[in-house]
Amino acid sequence: MERDAVDLIVEQWARARPDLDASPMRVLGRLSRVTRIVERELKALFNEFGLERGEFDVLATLRRAGSPDGMTAGMLARSSMVTSGAVTNRLDRLVAKGYVTRDVDPANRRTVVVALTPAGRELIDRAVAAHLDNERRILAALDRHRQDDLAAILRTLLLSLGDEADDPRALGDP
Fold it and tell me: Which residue intervals define the domain HTH marR-type in the entry (predicted)?
């Protein structure tokens, strides 16, 4: 059987501290390493479209929402699980690039509505197609059945850690 770096780390702990059960590292260590590798792959893809991860998330959230009228800035902040200041910075960059508009809601002057421009919609349509192709490439070592099993296992873990979807429409893209 092939071994990865986590196997070596767990074996080293078994020798250094045989009194400890390092088996959780077999899962969490691998999740951590996979996350770092996948983030690197995603960053490279988003760079091809002139986007940062957070900018992609904003554009994808707006596109998925399906409303040509856009979303409030507050809804975007909740969907991205970052501070409102971080959302503001992302929006500033996307407005400067011509991918979104940010307007005061005439019905409620305290609310800002963010919407895709035609250029933003065209960009996110191309970027999300490439993103999904990239994700398929990343997961190619797992057949569909294993991907489904892994997705179910990870859902169970996430739910046990309190990661529940109050409103699936408001979640950021994975």
Answer: 24-159
